Amino acid sequence: MADPSVAIVILNWNGRKYLQQFLPSVMSTIYSNRQVVVADNASTDESVAFLREHFPGVRVIALDRNFGFARGYNEALRQVEADYYVLLNSDVEVTPGWIGPVIGLMEKEAGIGACQPKILAYYDKQSFEYAGAAGGWMDYLGYPFARGRVFDICEKDQGQYDTTEPVFWASGAAMFVRAPLFHELGGLDGYFFAHQEEIDFCWRMQLAGYAVYACPASVVYHLGGGTLPKGNERKTVLNFRNNLIMMAKNLPAGEAFWKIGLRFLLDGLTAWKFLFAGQGGHFLAVIKAHFGFYNWLLFKRGESVFPVKKQGKLQGWLAKSVVWAYFARGQKTFAEIMKGK
Asked: Is 332 part of any domain?
């Protein structure tokens, strides 16, 4: 029996240098029934010409404008047929056998809708990488963290999170998803543009009754910050705004009302912290994010993708505040936070 078909789809925007550096590892993937697709968001750095000259085995989907991460993938994946999609960042180095363990797990467990490998840092291969680590979690106020990464602290990988288990979200840096399910759920929320769209997608997936897993037997190495570097003010706007939108869409209405109100207060404290640290741009970014959320709530809700149903049980959900655990109780690692769960 043939292996399920897998489409590795890389979304690119002016990332020729990353394609040149990381695509060879993707092309060396050991999996028989796979195709590699690069969807280009109207790059201006000759990415498409470079691909066609140096990687003729890669299928190129040239989009006519920069749709952002979320809508860019939606536009591209409508044109890709496979049993499974792998959404892979252009700045990820993969290991030769990275696909097999994940597809084996998902084929064995039909209820798993999405899965991620263990994501380690490209420049420090003994440490977890910020964007997903060994699988994402969420606290009850909507703060994402991960096995191996809490806020800005990334742990050393010592095998402490090598168990295959359900999580709340799989990282968009390297996310496996059943192709029919991706479309059934409406894809990523294009209104997000970029940042936290994969968390929202996994939340909607769980509400629809599917599980999200981390499979640490598969390993990749992520450079990170390729398109919007860490500390970028646009990134701050998108992260704060999209997080509030995600809560408004996926939480029960009464719960969303008080939790978003509390988040506004906590976001305000973070904004003042930015200002006192001399980061006035990030102070303004939080304010812009809040106005952006109001704009969505009042005028743009129809442009978002909402859960198809709200019946599934959530895994990887922390029923307390990770902010309190981290800043007040000094619990800096995932394992420390879980001890007092």
From this structure: no
